[in-house]
Amino acid sequence: MKIDEEEGRLGALAVAPRRRSYILAGYVATTIGGTLIVVMTGGAALAIGYGAAGDDWSLTGDILRAALSQWGAVALILAVAVLVAAARPSWSPLVWFGYTLAVVIALFGPIFDPPQWLLDTSPLLHTAVFPANAAGVLFGIAAVGVIAAGFGAFARRDLG
Length: 160
Prior knowledge:
Mean pLDDT: 82
Largest sheet: none
Low-confidence stretches: none
Strand content: under 5%
Oligomer: single chain
């Protein structure tokens, strides 16, 4: 969206007879839908691999629910990206920094044993390995609220 705005395509869309929310909705739907497909494809591949390797398909549903639980955390990170891009596009690189930090903490944090408050900053560590808690659902609900705030910010700002 930032590149489209810098190159003048977003402003051209904004003068068309449509609401601004439709413009942002296209970007959001593509991003959220694409990540859902990627996360669930990974979960399906893991379930197929686990089932084929051990000839035990009983955990297939649990593995797919765990993947969906992880998607809630990913959706929250994406929602923050939508809010920042909609409100202040020049701050978009900060979103990449936050995403990278969340992934690095999730992957390497438990290995290096940092303070718990640092581990708690990554939403990717709050979802269950198997769907034993509702963190993924709560993150999904929070993502909807943050995306709604992004739509409000996008409607109010001037498109350059």
